[in-house]
Fold this protein.
Amino acid sequence: MTQSTETELPHWPPVNSARNPLTPLDDAERQRYAGPVTRVLLPTGATAWLVSRHAEVRQVLRHPAFSSDLNRPGFPLLRPLPPEATRDFRGAFLQMDGAAHIRLRRMLTAEFMIKNVRRIEPLIHRTVDEALAELAATGPPADLVSTVALPLPSKVICHLLGVPYADHDFFQSRSRLLLDRRVPAEQLQQAAQELRDYLRSLIDAKRTRNGDGDLLSRLVRERVEPGELDVDELVGMALLLLIAGHETTANMLGLSVLLLTRHPGRYTLLRDRPDLAPGMVDELLRYLSIVRNGLFRAATEDVEIGGRLIRAGEGVIALISLANRDAEVFDDPDGFDPYREAQQHLAFGFGVHQCIGQPLARAELRITLVELARRFPDLRVTADLHELATRDSSIVFGLDTLPVTW
């Protein structure tokens, strides 16, 4: 492909500061990127294939020829990697393939099974009670993001991992830098190293104690001490869980409240029919799709996707936000239906890298939204959509603030 042709390709991600935060792509963008497979130009100057239909996205995410390893030739990047990326991603099984990925993921699978998440629901309820009490004490008016959406999942994941929540300002500020694709490589490297140093010190302290029942302490006793896992790997695993455990759910909570309160009947439904909450959570996940830049892979062999031959060494972006709006799978895909059976959505990914923490995220969303609707039945957002500050450059889309009253 010639350089002149590449410069005419649509850019990914799109730049549109006026976009509705409840809509992953506007109509014009959807026409530009709708596939099934479209060539796009990345901010680094490289090109990649954007895959946007539900069937083809599933095919990419489950096919072993599409690698999650950022160091693979042709892996699509939205920003240059820091100089020591390989070391920084050690233990981050989300960026691994094959046996290396399976080995680390299996060490955590039981922790996040549905039956184990049910055991910690009392903890989630207590944390929700604390957050809603803080909301009531703060306002009205109040900011729902800083009082509820962000602290709630942060406290839960800190409790599970054994990370002191008192340090939340430290790790949340650096987590957001790691997720921001506009942060310079040097600053990104520094934030990653500071978080790794923090977690290593925490893990070293746990190695001197035997009584703690948190996840990191158990991994130290059951995996590190027998030699199955080294400390660098545990640091990487902890970093991945800490970031994913609060950023994703926090952003989903803010956007979900924004969406539901714009239609009071839907919000009231959570209070009057809490039995509908699990299905409504899946519909929220489908409709909002907060991983809007897509899931990134590199082809390790030639594979045909959607009638297009993708060659080894080419990058692929699985656009789950458009896959979740595929009319071949979902009736009226651009409409929010609180009664929809939306379990086929791809908000948590698909295949071997599907989000390991999804039972926890679902429980946090369900419990928080039901309790919020029950205790604050008159909750409403006080800003217009275009006035809300959004995290457009983040890998995980969300709201900076959500002003509410009741």
Summary: The longest helix spans residues 231-261. The chain has a mean pLDDT of 93. DSSP finds 17 helices and ten strands in the chain. The beta strands are 37-41, 47-51, 66-67, 142-143, 295-299, 303-305, 308-310, 315-318, 380-381, 403-405.
